[in-house]
Write a structure and sequence with these properties.
Elements lengths: L8 H9 L21 H13 L6 H10 L4 H13 L5 H12 L12 H10 L4 H8 L4 H15 L8 H14 L4 H14 L8
Helix pairs in contact: 3-4, 5-7, 6-7, 8-10, 9-10
Length: 202
């Protein structure tokens, strides 16, 4: 019996190339059928990763979650929970930050005064009241001693300039580190006088 496409070229071509029979879709990749990730679990992992190795403020962590598009309600709930269990503690962060950056820092050249520390804590998202309470623990004598240490460390760099320029440079250096003008001038005057120089009057 002749084939049914005999006499009809297009039917013959279809039969030959099997275009007539619709091809079955390829089987779905079962491995790709992963359920949608749980947003809360993802957010929790982000927080734990961020807190590994160093403390962070609530604002820093909230910003990180927002950058990862974590829904606000989930972010707030998790941040509250992390605070409850002590994994987020802005007050402790502020005190540790001050200890690492302030008058008692071992690296003299990087010591900062209260005003500069307050600005850094503000940028970190620490509440003003929390920052103020932590900064109030700084001993004024320690701050003055830190300023003196900074000036002594810089005296050699101003050996070749006159006393007026030396005074201005040293006071400017202290100002950039957050020391008030009154303390800065007093410390610079004392240290230059101790080095046998004539400091500029404020």
């Amino acid at each position: 019996m002749p084939p049914d496409w005999l006499g009809d070229v297009s039917v013959g071509v279809d039969a030959w190339t099997r275009r007539a029979a619709p091809t079955a879709p390829p089987p779905e990749d079962e491995a790709a059928q992963v359920p949608e990730a749980d947003a809360e679990a993802v957010a929790r992992k982000i927080l734990l990763d961020q807190l590994t190795g160093q403390a962070r403020t609530r604002k820093e962590l909230a910003d990180k979650l927002a950058a990862k598009n974590v829904p606000a309600d989930i972010a707030t709930r998790l941040l509250d929970r992390f605070e409850e269990v002590g994994l987020i503690d802005d007050e402790a962060f502020a005190r540790a930050w001050i200890a690492s950056r302030g008058a008692t820092r071992s690296d003299v050249g990087r010591r900062l005064a209260k005003r500069a520390l307050a600005q850094e804590l503000h940028r970190k998202g620490i509440d003003n009241e929390v920052a103020r309470e932590a900064l109030d623990d700084i001993d004024p004598d320690d701050e003055a001693a830190a300023a003196r240490a900074l000036v002594r460390a810089k005296l050699r760099s101003v050996e070749r300039v006159d006393d007026v320029k030396a005074t201005r440079r040293l006071v400017g250096m202290l100002a950039r580190k957050g020391y008030g003008s009154g303390l800065a001038f007093a410390v610079v005057r004392e240290e230059l006088a101790a080095a046998g120089r004539e400091p500029l009057d404020d």
